[in-house]
Amino acid sequence: MATEIIKTEHLDKIYRDNGVPVHALKKVNFTVTESEFTVLAGPSGSGKTTLLNLIGALDSPTAGRIFFEGNDISKKKPKELSSLRLNKLGFIFQAYNLIPVLTAIENIEFSMILSGIPEKIRRERALQVMKELGIDELANKRPNEMSGGQQQRVAVARAIVNSPKVVLADEPTANLDSKTGAVLLDIMERMNREKNITFVFSSHDQQVIERGKRLVLLHDGMIESDNEQK
Asked: Of the N and C termini of the chain, which has fewer Cβ atoms inside 10 Å?
């Protein structure tokens, strides 16, 4: 039986837009188990990115609870949440979020620096993951010297280098052409299969939606359907 990693109970999130309350999520119950390759889909404003941010401890719920590996993280202190993000979670963003002044390998090493991993081990791990992703020739290039697809591969390497339990990817192919996006998805499918990394995507992209082994559709802040895919 698959191990449960993430669980939400009656999750609510209310934002304020110029003082007007916006109910982004409404009583959402959602579970992620080990080795899933899940896509959260739905129109703009459906709540998929909000849900991704909450389960990634990047935001806090208005009401309800979030569990990670059985521990309620809803009320944990910022330092504890920071440790969770650093050691258990990997993030891939639409805008890549690479540090402009750092080279590719330095960007990949950055989270390991924060974790206090010694320099020699950091460099070995970073080079290994770059080889696995076919980007070792980019080691000394800065983001402005790379294509969008190359930057996103570096972002993937940064997300997985610390061997996270879960990688959360928010519209990871949005700024890529379809061919480059397909290559990136191939890489992430291989990481899921070979390294047992759990992936949860938020995406409008049809090719991402089709690749998902599980498709969760959101509408108006609620889960509309939740189905396994072939």
From this structure: C
> Both ends of the chain: CA-CA distance in Å?
19
Residue 102 lies in a domain: yes
Calpha distance 5→105 (Å, rounded): 30
pLDDT tens track for 16-46: 888 889 899 999 999 999 999 999 999 988 9
CA dist 132 to 29, 66, 75, 105, 153, Å?
36, 33, 38, 13, 11
The strands making up 4-17's β-sheet, listed across from edge to edge, are 20-33, 4-17, 63-68, 71-72
Selection from 203, 100, 98 nearest residue 156 by Cα: 98
Q: What is the CATH number of the domain that holds 184?
A: 3.40.50.300
Domain count, the chain: 1
3-class secondary-structure state, position 38: strand
Residue 7 lies in a domain: no
Q: Which domain holds residue 94?
A: 35-49+78-214+222-228
Q: What is the chain's percent helix, strand, coil content, to nearest 5?
A: 40, 30, 30
